[in-house]
Amino acid sequence: MSEEQFPEVQGGGSLILAWQIKNKRVLVVGGGEVCRAILRRGATNGWPSKVAAGRILNVLNADAKVTVVSPRDGLNPEVAYRIEKGQVDYVDRKFEPSDLDNVDMVLTAVDDPEASSQIWKLCKERRIAANIADVPPECDFYFGSVHRDGPLQVMVSTNGKGPRLANIVRRSIATNLPDNVGEAIEKVGKLRQMLRKIAPKPEEGPKRMAWMIKVSDAYSLEDLCEMNEEDMEALLQFYAPDKVPRFGCLKAMKNEAFDGSFDGSFGFFVGWG
Amino acid sequence: MSEEQFPEVQGGGSLILAWQIKNKRVLVVGGGEVCRAILRRGATNGWPSKVAAGRILNVLNADAKVTVVSPRDGLNPEVAYRIEKGQVDYVDRKFEPSDLDNVDMVLTAVDDPEASSQIWKLCKERRIAANIADVPPECDFYFGSVHRDGPLQVMVSTNGKGPRLANIVRRSIATNLPDNVGEAIEKVGKLRQMLRKIAPKPEEGPKRMAWMIKVSDAYSLEDLCEMNEEDMEALLQFYAPDKVPRFGCLKAMKNEAFDGSFDGSFGFFVGWG
């Protein structure tokens, strides 16, 4: 095997990860102070007021349990709304070190560099992953611009070069994606579940995966969107002989008697190999 | 402020993060055994042989220091190549608990469920972030399909519904992005650096950021790609008066004497507000 087959290392990136924080406890320190402070310093477009609010939404979308510690005075309206609706737990005071007990992740958005650094140090002592807003060296991770469509998440990072461009690229990606791509992915997930029911044995794992790959490669996203439960039932008949019918044939099966005999011709089946 | 202004929580996602592991130590346990084992179980397309190799490349691309612990026998050729080239440190034996000393992240790809679970438990005791390949409940994080273009990283996650579709979506996104978007982002990063030199005061942070936003919004990605250092120098003349010339005007400045007087008309400047 020659060396040129192996991709070259391209440093300078981040390790982009889908962090699993379902039912984990996330502590958000501050809920609006950054906003007021930066506004005082002269920004007029209001962008920072969304720091705490945006992060709270990020972690709620990933099913985390959230505690917000922040004095009520000066709370960002969206944060106040999440508190009022009971979407987050709330402690109406400034941060205290005991707030870190049993916490899995810490996000801060407070306008006090010393307090921020102190929280960062405590997090590192306790090995808690943390992001101190606006202080890149005191962050285990950065956020990016995320497009969401059902089970699909697309995250754009410019590695700090241009946060605004990340939003522009994210919007351009969202515009160019097929309308129902989230739905198509949901359908594939459903098909995978149905397949696991008809072929549950663990040792069939590789065969199941190989067949799902054939299906994913054989149909367009538009085809997958169009697929209903009846189509999936029909499609699953092709798992045992390890074949995948062309999508037109699959749709045609609904209206015709299908005798289950396969001629194996390339005109009918796709996704070989 | 009415409630409808606030985005609804849409659970079921992951928290997608750009993890910072530059100069952090990542331990990779195993370097090919999964491959051989799954191949033994009947898979024929070779997909799993790339698990350890793919992850090692992921973390090297993020400038991590990598240690691979795996018996030399059965090493994946790409992993062997990285070892031979000195891109990773290597320990030629099975995992031992002391391997976790001073480690910031652990990735395993070993075909021994009991050994894997043991490593997971040790990581949790020591609060080390870990991903046990092929065992979703024993993962602090999942990987997605990543497109890279210089400083730009786009990560596609289907939240486990369809890994193959994630690749398809990623390829479709890469095809639709402007050819030099990575370069455009690099240019904006460069402009930001140059701006920080001519306006270094911390209290100008909000003004710098507001102006960079105007620039990012005023020019197309294609415009940004086309910008050279001379154009950037010209553009920076517009920072003090807080204006952004239309791109055509900016390019024209190279060939014409420019007297620096602004008429403030909307025909000439863009990005107000």
UniProtKB/TrEMBL annotation, chains A, B:
Residues 178-245 form the Siroheme biosynthesis protein Met8 C-terminal domain. It comes from Hymenoscyphus albidus. Pfam families: NAD_binding_7, Sirohm_synth_C, Sirohm_synth_M. This is precorrin-2 dehydrogenase. Keywords: NAD, Oxidoreductase, Porphyrin biosynthesis. It catalyses: precorrin-2 + NAD(+) = sirohydrochlorin + NADH + 2 H(+). PANTHER family: SIROHEME BIOSYNTHESIS PROTEIN MET8. It is an enzyme of class 1 (oxidoreductase). One of its GO terms (molecular function) is precorrin-2 dehydrogenase activity. Its EC number is 1.3.1.76. One of its GO terms (biological process) is siroheme biosynthetic process. Residues 149-174 form the Siroheme synthase central domain. Pathway: Porphyrin-containing compound metabolism; siroheme biosynthesis; sirohydrochlorin from precorrin-2: step 1/1.
